Here is the input.
Amino acid sequence: MKKLFIILSATILTMSFASAQNGKACDPGKEANYKSLSNPNSAGGYGAVITKGNALAVPDVEKQMKAKNVTELKNVKITGKVNGVCKMKGCWMEIADGKGGSTRVRFKNYEFFVPRDCENQTVYAQGIARFDTTSVAMLKHYAEDAGKTRKEIAAITQPEVSLTFEAEGVLFDKK
Here is the structure.
């Protein structure tokens, strides 16, 4: 009976871990084609072709959402400095929020990536802004992707509620 309980527990944990991985930032199912996903579009950006016009700074989007008392704002354009990017393949980036933190930007349906060397560039991103909770497991995964040390990763012990962004397209200022 004890042996059966251990096997059953291990199976449940494995299935839970596997289903949690489906929401992973670096989707292993797309691994084979990630290089083609970081090719620029016809305007020199990534994903859907967008323009720079009417972009708001991250703090302005956050203020707008709080004023409207909404947790999601669709079809919004943000701009800011990139202060972090997935070093594995460019499947997410962080934009400085003007308060010493950052807003994580992921890409709609995992359809495109950005250059892994885009830090410190000004970016424009169009899509959906959301207040969301990021789990400890996902925060640790992001830290690993960003090249953080084991000690820094181990220090992550609490989920994070923050503004996140799902971009359908991004455009960088020329270097």
